[in-house]
Every structure is written in structure tokens, then in C-alpha cells.
Specification:
The protein has 25 helices and 20 strands. It is of the alpha+beta class.
Length: 686
């Protein structure tokens, strides 16, 4: 019989609707029941494509005996971290503070007043590797609650007080100031020290795609000419594109690499990773003309449209890591890995031998699905390893096509069809720009349809956003700061490409909401609105995680909107918000990469480019393309017919001696208008 999750819209919660555990969604009613029964709350947080969430669900939450114990002694609450990032952030901070680490599934025990007192992540069904079993944890928590409740509540109260004391973000005395050139040079040096010069990327295993740091390095190179910054981007992008973290058949990136060499991924594919990386590779091509960057940007964009697009025109959140391996086992990576025998079945003996050499497929293999890590298990993750014999491009394309067709016949990983506003905003920006750079109007159209969906379904007339929707039904949870910031960023990028000023208007509505409901007087920003549900504290984090922090993403969108609209209020808010980047950039550059990228734009201007000319005129199109391909950090572009005032940046701009013209302004000073594409290109670093 379904439990109380059966009427939720989150695919992750619905995965647990048939558990024997009497799950409840996060709600006042759940905590009221805990108070009336006098029992603690088990809070379990995860997401639909989380491998270990599925493992713990199968081992413990589907077990009738465990469920009976939970139902008798706890109120059990299940949360989708992608739907409620505010709940996840607050309790993850407590987990990390108490244990020194975090992750999902996140397991937290709370008092009926939602105060945490015991923490963990995955717990096995039986004790192993020094970890207690989940049943032992439940029995220990129950005993402590029954026998030492006052002590437990004192501990919980202290944890909440400690969290409250950690919330202040120190920006120094006086008005917060954005980073200067010396601050950004210091951040570059910090990244250089952490750079893996042999294998690309930063740090060791597990190794995550450093999308936001790469965007900073590209902008820093554009502003300063630093070859070191560009070389770090090139080396990292090539290593990822040749590695197993990149899907060599279907395009798109997995979540991270379990090793430092980018060989064996954690196979889930997230919308946000692929949107961010699509944009990074497109920008790398824009800076260098790299054919590899062009191929990966387009393949990733095509993956997004082919695999992630929903019937409503938005983009789904994720593809699972696990799928049926053909024997009834649901295992990680089954859809993606290959054995030599499987190659022979599809390609024949001769082509299979060459394909194995090209893609690094060996008899020993590189991946063991039973342990989900880099170790010989007979299956190999496809990669393009250094030293592999060169392959004819036409032959390699044929092999890819044949293998992809064969892979399509395998059981596919599950897809989380939930539309997350923020991540769709990232996808809109990536697809709009990639479509414009490579003359792919179909990609721009896909971006436009996703933007239409967000306006139609997620956004109200007052500029408030809902975070999620599913199947055309909007979710109940309010948007958080990253939703407003990333959607505004996507709308501004789409306007620059399409010339449709309405997207600037929508971005302005969202950013006004940011200023009214998310900003403090001192320039700091909160992750939730001032009228959002009250948690044990109001979350506030300026550092990047898997996506740009809401704080610095908002700074970037505010800066771009100010440049397009001429709004001093939005410019000042952006500069105040960038004060945190000055405080943290040189100390933790890997974790505030988007803020550093925005600071590069602020330091460079950003440059404001208005292209004026008749719609459809080849000269207008040439100037517009040159403007979009300029590498000046964070440059904003508007295009329109003479006399257009739909976008304020175009107001008062006319033709130049009857010809389409481009106007470039920077730091309140404008260059003479030009009709010369080469001059515009040179002036914008194209």
C-alpha cells in the first residue's frame, strides 16, 4: 500500500512511495505528529540519480522488519535535495560540522522541533568497515531518546546555536568592494598551485569537472593574455574530453571521476554539469578555435536536446547511474561499459580489435560494476587514451554510430523528469550561445522553448519563481536564490542571441525580486527569500558547489542586467555582492570560481555592445556574430533595428551613414561607432 509520498511530484519521493516505511514529505504535519507521539524524526535526504541512495533504499527502506521498527519509534521524513536545497543545505552544514564530511544519502535525526542531534550518510544493513548497521543506529538513537532525552535536546540546542554563529559572512569594514586586478592575480596563483599538470583538473581523486574555475581562467586570459590560465583550461578540457567521464558515443559528461585520471566516472549525468560544460567548451572554441572544443560543445548540446528534453520543452534533471545489466541486476554503469566480446558482436573481429585499441577496451577491463570503481572487472569505460593508435576520422565516426545504435538496445538508465528552474536557466544560456556560435538555430529554438516554459509555468506576474515542475504541473516549493540568478542569466544570454528584448524584461523582474527579498543592506545575499519557510537558520553560502553559488550567480546576472539596462541600482548591488569574492578569492579559488569570473567582467567593464541594423541584413548579422564571438569578459550584447528601444542599450543608436553599425561602451565611455566587422572583432578580443 503506498505511503504518504504517493501524491508528491518529485520523482525521488515517488521512488519511495511504495516502501513499507511510512514516509512523510517535509511538512509541519510531520513534526506535529512527532511532538504528539513524543518520538524523534528521521530525516533522509537524497536525489533520484544518487547510487548510494538507491542502495540504502533497497537494503533498509524496502526491508519490512526495518520499516516496522522505524514506523514504531520514529516519524520518517524523506526530502529530495534538488527540490528543497534549503533544507539540504542547513542540515548538510550540520553533518559536515559534526563529522568532517558529507554526502548523500544524508541521514539526520531531529527533535520534534527540527533540531539535529545525530548525523550520518549511508548506513549498511550489517556492520562493516567500522560502520554500525542502520538497525544499530536506530536502536542507539531510540535508547538515547528514551533514557537521556534532556541531554539529547541540550545537544541539539547547542548545535543550532553553533550553526547560527557560523552564518555571518565577514566582508570587512566599510562598503564591500569587488576584487581588483591584484586579487584576481592572487586567485590565479592559488589555482596554479592546485593544478594537476599531468592529468588536468585540480586536486586528486575523486575529481570533479571544475566548470566555474575554467570560466574564470578563460576570462582572465581574455583580459590579461595570461598563457598559463589558458593552458590550464586547454589541458583540463582535453583530458576530460578524452577520458571516460565523457560519453565517447553519445556525448555529455558524467558527474565526476572516481580516479584522478578521468577514466572511471560516477555514471549519473546531471543537467547542470552538461549545461555548464557545454558553455565552457563553446567559450574555449571561441578563444582558440579548437576543433576538439567545438566537437564536444556540439555533442554535449545535442545530448541535452536528445536525452534530457521533456515533452513540455524543458530539460530533465538527471539520468541515473544504474540500469539493468541484462541479467536482472540493477548495477552502476551497465549502460555505458563494454567488453572486447561485446565489441566483436557489434563490429566484427577486425573493427573490434582496432576499436578496442582506440577506446582503451581490454580483457582485464577498467571498471568493476560490483564495487563501482576503477579496477579490472572485465568491462571497460570507453575513452580516447594518449598513445592509442590514430584512427581514421570517418572510420571512427562509423564505429561510434554502430556502437551507439547497439547501446540503444540496452536497458536505459532512469531519468528524473523534474524541471529545476535554475538548471534550466543554465541550459538556456549554454544552448543559446552554442547555437549562435555554430549556426545551429535548432539549439537556439530549444533554448527559447525552455525559457517559454519557465515564464509560462514557473514564473508569476510579480516576478516570483517556483523551483520545480513535473509533467506540466508546477511544484509547491518556492524558488531559491540560484533559481532567480541562473534563470535571469539564461534570459539575458537568450536576448543577446535572439535580439528579443522581452527576455531582458523578464530578467529584470527576477532580479528586482532578488533585491527585494534576498539581499541584506550590507550587500550579502541569502539563499532563501525573507518570506520563505523558516528553518533552524536561514541558509547563506557564497561558495560554488556543483553549480555556481546563488550569491555569485546573482552578482553576475545583476552586473549584466545593469549593463544592458543602464541601472545604477543593479550595478551597485552587483559590486556589493562581489565583496565576498575579494574576501575569499585568493584563499579558496576553486570554490568561488563563478564569483571570480564575474569579477573579471566587472573589472573589464563589462563592455556594452549595441548592434543596430535592419533585421535580416547580412551586414547586421555579421556585426552581431562578431559581437557574440568577442572574448571580452562578460561582454553584453543587444541587437535591434534602428529606432528600437525594447532594450535600453539600443536607445538612441542609429545607422552609420546608412549602414548597420556597432557601438561599444566601457566604463561610461563609448568608442566611435563602426560598420567594420574586423575592427569590432579586434576591439572585443575575437
Amino acid at each position: 500500500m503506498p505511503n504518504r509520498l504517493a501524491h508528491e511530484t518529485s520523482p525521488y519521493l515517488l521512488q519511495h512511495a511504495d516502501n513499507p516505511v511510512d514516509w512523510r514529505p517535509w511538512s509541519d504535519e510531520a513534526f506535529e505528529e512527532a511532538r504528539s507521539r513524543g518520538v524523534p524524526v528521521l530525516l533522509s535526504v537524497g536525489y533520484s540519480s544518487c547510487h548510494w541512495c538507491h542502495v540504502m533504499a533497497h537494503e533498509s527502506f524496502e526491508d519490512a522488519e526495518t520499516a516496522e521498527y522505524l514506523n514504531a519509534h520514529f516519524v520518517s521524513v524523506k526530502v529530495d535535495r534538488e527540490e528543497r536545497p534549503d533544507v539540504d543545505a542547513v542540515y548538510m552544514e550540520a553533518v559536515q560540522a559534526a563529522t568532517g564530511q558529507g554526502g548523500w544519502p544524508m541521514t539526520v535525526f531531529l527533535t520534534p522541533d527540527a533540531q539535529p542531534f545525530y548525523f550520518g550518510t549511508y548506513f549498511p544493513p550489517r556492520p562493516r568497515h567500522g560502520m554500525p548497521s542502520f538497525r544499530q543506529v536506530l536502536e542507539g538513537v531510540r535508547a538515547a531518546w528514551a533514557d537521556r532525552r534532556d541531554e539529547v535536546q541540550d545537544v541539539a540546542g547547542k548545535i543550532v546555536r553553533d550553526l547560527a554563529e557560523r552564518t555571518g559572512i565577514a566582508l570587512g569594514s566599510g562598503a564591500p568592494q569587488p576584487p581588483g586586478a591584484e586579487d584576481l592575480a592572487g586567485a590565479l596563483m592559488g589555482l596554479t598551485r592546485e593544478f594537476d599538470a599531468v592529468r588536468g583538473g585540480f586536486g586528486g581523486a575523486p575529481k570533479f569537472p571544475p566548470s566555474m574555475a575554467l570560466e574564470f581562467l578563460l576570462r582572465h586570459h581574455a583580459r590579461t593574455g595570461s598563457e598559463g590560465a589558458l593552458q590550464m583550461v586547454q589541458a583540463t578540457c582535453e583530458a576530460m574530453a578524452r577520458g571516460g567521464i565523457y560519453d565517447q558515443l553519445g556525448g555529455g559528461f558524467a558527474r565526476y571521476s572516481v580516479d584522478a585520471e578521468w577514466i572511471v566516472p560516477h555514471f549519473e549525468k546531471m543537467l547542470y554539469d552538461n549545461a555548464l560544460l557545454c558553455r565552457v567548451y563553446a567559450h574555449l572554441w571561441r578563444a582558440t578555435g579548437s576543433e576538439l572544443a567545438r566537437r564536444v560543445a556540439l555533442e554535449t548540446a545535442d545530448f541535452l536536446v536528445r536525452e534530457m528534453r521533456t515533452e513540455q520543452g524543458g530539460f530533465a534533471s538527471a539520468l541515473d547511474a544504474d540500469s539493468d545489466d541484462g541479467t536482472g541486476r540493477h548495477v552502476e554503469g551497465a549502460y555505458y561499459v563494454w567488453t572486447p566480446e561485446q565489441l566483436r558482436e557489434v563490429l566484427g573481429e577486425a573493427d573490434a580489435e582496432q576499436a578496442a585499441a582506440s577506446f582503451g577496451v581490454t580483457e582485464d577491463g577498467t571498471f568493476d560494476s560490483d564495487i563501482g570503481r576503477c579496477r579490472g572487472g572485465g568491462s571497460s569505460v570507453l575513452q580516447l587514451p594518449d598513445g592509442a593508435p590514430p584512427a581514421d576520422a570517418a572510420w571512427l565516426a562509423s564505429v561510434r554510430e554502430r556502437l551507439l545504435a547497439a547501446r540503444e538496445r540496452r536497458a536505459r538508465p532512469g531519468r528524473d523528469d523534474k524541471i529545476v528552474a535554475a538548471w534550466n536557466g543554465l541550459a538556456i544560456a549554454a544552448l543559446a550561445e552554442t547555437g549562435a556560435y555554430f549556426d545551429r538555430p535548432d539549439l537556439v529554438e530549444a533554448a527559447t522553448e525552455a525559457a517559454d516554459l519557465l515564464v509560462r509555468l514557473h514564473m508569476d506576474t510579480g516576478g516570483r519563481l517556483a523551483r520545480t515542475s513535473l509533467g506540466g504541473a508546477v511544484g509547491a516549493h518556492a524558488g531559491v536564490l540560484e533559481d532567480y540568478a541562473d534563470v535571469a542569466e539564461g534570459f539575458l544570454a537568450l536576448s543577446a542571441v535572439s535580439g528579443e528584448g522581452v527576455w531582458v524584461e523578464f530578467a529584470g523582474l527576477l532580479l528586482d525580486t532578488v533585491l527585494h527579498h534576498f539581499a541584506a543592506e550590507d550587500g550579502t545575499l541569502y539563499d532563501t527569500a525573507d518570506d520563505a519557510e523558516a528553518l533552524i537558520r536561514r541558509p547563506q553560502d557564497p561558495t560554488d558547489n556543483a553549480v555556481p553559488s546563488g550569491w555569485t550567480a546573482a552578482a553576475g546576472a545583476l552586473l549584466s542586467y545593469a549593463a544592458v539596462s543602464g541601472s545604477g541600482r543593479h550595478r551597485e548591488a552587483a559590486e556589493r555582492a562581489l565583496g565576498v569574492v575579494r574576501a575569499l578569492g585568493a584563499r579558496v579559488p576553486r570554490f568561488i570560481g563563478w564569483g571570480l569570473a564575474v569579477a573579471e567582467a566587472q573589472l573589464d567593464g563589462p563592455r556594452e555592445v549595441a548592434v543596430v541594423g535592419p533585421d535580416g541584413d547580412p551586414a547586421t548579422r555579421a556585426l552581431h556574430r562578431a559581437a557574440l564571438l568577442g572574448t571580452a569578459p562578460g561582454a553584453v550584447v543587444a541587437v535591434g533595428a534602428p529606432g528600437s528601444d525594447e532594450v535600453p542599450l539600443l536607445a538612441g543608436r542609429g545607422l552609420l551613414e546608412g549602414r548597420p553599425a556597432a557601438y561599444v561602451c566601457r566604463h561610461f565611455t563609448c568608442d566611435a561607432p563602426t560598420a567594420d566587422v574586423a575592427a569590432l572583432t579586434a576591439g572585443l578580443g575575437g
